[in-house]
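INTERNAL TRANSFER SHEET
From: sequence group
To: structure group
Subject: Acetolactate synthase small subunit

Please process the attached sequence and return the structure record in the designated field. Keep the field labels unchanged so the import script can parse them.
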Amino acid sequence: MTAEHNVPDQLLSLLVRDEPRVLTRITALFGRRGYNIRSLSVGTTEHPGVSRMTIVVSGDRGVVEQAMRQLEKLHDVVKIIDHSLEKYVDRELVLVKVSITPENRVEVRHIAEDFRARIVDVGRHALTFEVTGDEGKLTAFIEQMRPFGILETMRTGRIALTRGSNADIPAHVWHEGESAALTPAVEPREERARGVPNLF
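Return from structure group:
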């Protein structure tokens, strides 16, 4: 268990088809091989019928590469982007409910302002804050609030996009050759109209 904590997290994005049980099949693949998913976020993309999963996996690099090979074989998976080999921007959101008293209310608010946290709910004995940023910022905010008494927290998990364009990043997607990180997940409508096969 101790060695596992020294293994860096691997950040992956998957473009997947919106079909029943897709999430189950992908998480089952990781589970069968004993990979620990630290966070998983799923949302719609700019393409109807395609969702993006951002997965943070703890495990040896070689083991994660094996998982990517298996993911490639799934019909549901359109594209895999390995952010550990890309320049990327990532964000996370957390809601934190903090216990307050008349004595600490001002101090709690001042700390929240330093982190650009937004108050989303006010109660007689608690304030709920919304904070967005990278993983380090959110963790630091939680630790600053802990002495006052944290009643509840909820984190969304990380989401990520590749920075820039293929012209200015050392791009790499799991497939060999030129990066496909920024190429369309589905073909343009005019190509489909000419009968060119698409991903679906």
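Handover comment: The two ends are 42 Å apart (CA to CA). Strands lie at 9-17, 36-44, 50-58, 77-82, 88-99, 118-122, 126-133, 150-155, 159-162.
Transfer complete.
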